[in-house]
Amino acid sequence: MKIGKLLVMFSLAIALLLFSDKEAQAGSAPIGVKWDNSILIQGQIGRVTILQDTALFKYEKGKLITIKTLRKGNIYRVYSYKDQNGGVYGVGGGAFVKKSSSIKYETPSKTKRSQLARIVFFDEGDFLKLAKQGVMKGQPFSLNNDDLNDVYDYFGNTPSWEGYYEGGYGRQFGNYIYFTSWEDDPKFTAFMWANDGLTPLTPYIIKNTVGKPSWEGISEMDGHWMMYYDLGYYEVYFSFKGDNRSDLHSILLKRSYR
Fold this sequence. Notes:
The protein is α+β, with helices and mostly antiparallel strands. It has helices at 3-21, 110-120, 124-131, 148-155, 203-209; strands spanning 33-35, 38-40, 46-50, 54-60, 63-70, 75-78, 80-82, 88-92, 95-98, 103-106, 161-165, 168-173, 176-180, 188-194, 215-218, 225-230, 234-240, 248-255.
């Protein structure tokens, strides 16, 4: 066997081992949703459980070449499916497992997919980029370019809640609350996103999706954990329900008056 081929097979084997052991490493668990004894992550379409020892393959010149044997009881994430060679599941690193009675393939439930979508919602490059423009992700309005009349025109119904809250008058549509200075003022002062508890969103998850905050610690106002992002003209506050391991309560986007 040529040295080049040996190196390719060795690299694929190492990649799969790293993939399999990643969750077991302290402090390096991937960001995702708990799915039984594994974690569902972005880009994953399912998982395979090895029922009987079975071969792991790679494609070489259009043919499947055996890399190693996967042992009974192990579980691997699936990222793709090819309707070739009787069906093969892509488990990462260019490696595949054949569809057979030796494996069990499962897809995540609708609830799990929704929970994962909620976590992906806080992607760093997207969430903060919009916030720097005065826009809370998931809705189209800007703190500077729109006002309350645009909100009513967009949603076409009455808010599920409205009233004074912490010095402003808010109106809630879905997860979003739009604040003005007082009841008859249409000009926005802040946007808030209220967590509905679809999936736990801890400070650890927020830091690993949104990015490192400018400051984090105990809020003097309510004694709960807070994360603050300084975005120049705007500020974002992530407020949690308790300590630095508790679930997210809300997010506030407001103008910076420094």
